UniProtKB/TrEMBL annotation:
Residues spanning the membrane: none
EC supergroup of this enzyme: oxidoreductase
Location of the active site: 181, 230 (proton donor), 300
Biochemical pathway: Cell wall biogenesis; peptidoglycan biosynthesis
Sorted UniProt keywords: Cell cycle, Cell division, Cell shape, Cell wall biogenesis/degradation, Cytoplasm, FAD, Flavoprotein, NADP, Oxidoreductase, Peptidoglycan synthesis
Protein name, per record: UDP-N-acetylenolpyruvoylglucosamine reductase
Organism lineage: Bacteria, Pseudomonadati, Pseudomonadota, Alphaproteobacteria, Hyphomicrobiales
Main function: Cell wall formation.
A GO-annotated cellular component: cytosol
Listed PANTHER family: UDP-N-ACETYLENOLPYRUVOYLGLUCOSAMINE REDUCTASE
Family statement: Belongs to the MurB family.
Amino acid sequence: MIGGEALIAKLGDRLTGLRGRLTPSAEMEKITWFRAGGLAQALFQPADEEDLAAFLKAVPEEIPVMVVGIGSNLLVREGGIPGFVVRLSAKGFGEAEAISATGIKAGAATPDKRVAALAHDNGIGGFHFYHGIPGAIGGALRMNAGANGVETRERVVEVRALDRKGDLHLLSNADMGYSYRQSAAAADLIFTSATFEGYTEDKDAIKAAMDAVQHHRETVQPIREKTGGSTFKNPEGTSAWKEIDNAGCRGLMIGGAQMSPLHCNFMINTGNASGYDLEYLGETVRSRVLENSGIRLQWEIKRLGNFKPGHEVQEFLGQLL
Ligand SMILES: Cc1cc2nc3c(=O)[nH]c(=O)nc-3n(C[C@H](O)[C@H](O)[C@H](O)COP(=O)(O)OP(=O)(O)OC[C@H]3O[C@@H](n4cnc5c(N)ncnc54)[C@H](O)[C@@H]3O)c2cc1C
């Protein structure tokens, strides 16, 4: 893989005129909650949707482009991410407003918490769950983020997105193809904003629900640690944390990575864990759970990029069943 400077130089004039910020060889550990991982060959932070469309049209399709949000659900491998990583700026994509008595429009870089606060201020119910999710709206739309019995899919009306060619798409709730912690919308789509619908609710009741969300999290989750939230999706009919606990993996540590003793489906970087430590720990847990209960845990955390040579991690550590 050539360096980021060389990649940008290779594209030459194609990138002139862009208003956003280009950073060669960007350190992904600075923009992920785990504070671990390798370099993105180049990072682009578009100024606004028009700038993003111009960028997508300018970059030849054989060069990979992927989008990240606030990085609260990402594990970046040590070998880094080839091509461009796009990160939406708060300035160009962070506007949120109430558009009717029960409707909200939010840019994809708006923190979920900000949407919860806006809904509260306008007496719009159904968004309190965002108060406890540390990501931004783009990540929530892609992950169907949910908590406290509510999911993003219950609120989404329409999503604006650009495809890899820079063409605009408007997706309905059905087009987003939602299921548990995922959307079937085309993988190349970069969501830029969305509209949501809630319901009328008393502000005090909304505030109480938000406080309950916060209190619950402070009590049962290691929210002040370097973590990616739930590591694995809950399997059908059981909870990931129960299976991890039963397999004896609560507190399990590999290098600087640990399954949290407080909430054992949360993986944490205790100090200087590498992307390898984190993924190796995750696959160790998967293999032990498989051995213990026959359940094949599925990653909820998105793993990105290439392995560093000699630091490859096999699914289930290569365990055959
Ligand atoms: C302490 C903690 C608690 C958490 N609790 C919860 C919880 O209760 N419920 C829950 O659902 N999640 C939870 N999470 C996980 C995480 O916050 C959510 O998945 C969140 O929605 C991710 O948003 P993000 O902006 O950080 O996205 P990232 O982690 O940066 O990206 C996640 C995925 O979304 C994609 N993506 C991001 N932005 C866009 C965009 N604009 N267009 C298209 N795709 C995009 C990325 O490509 C990636 O595949 C928690 C995480 C932490 C650290």
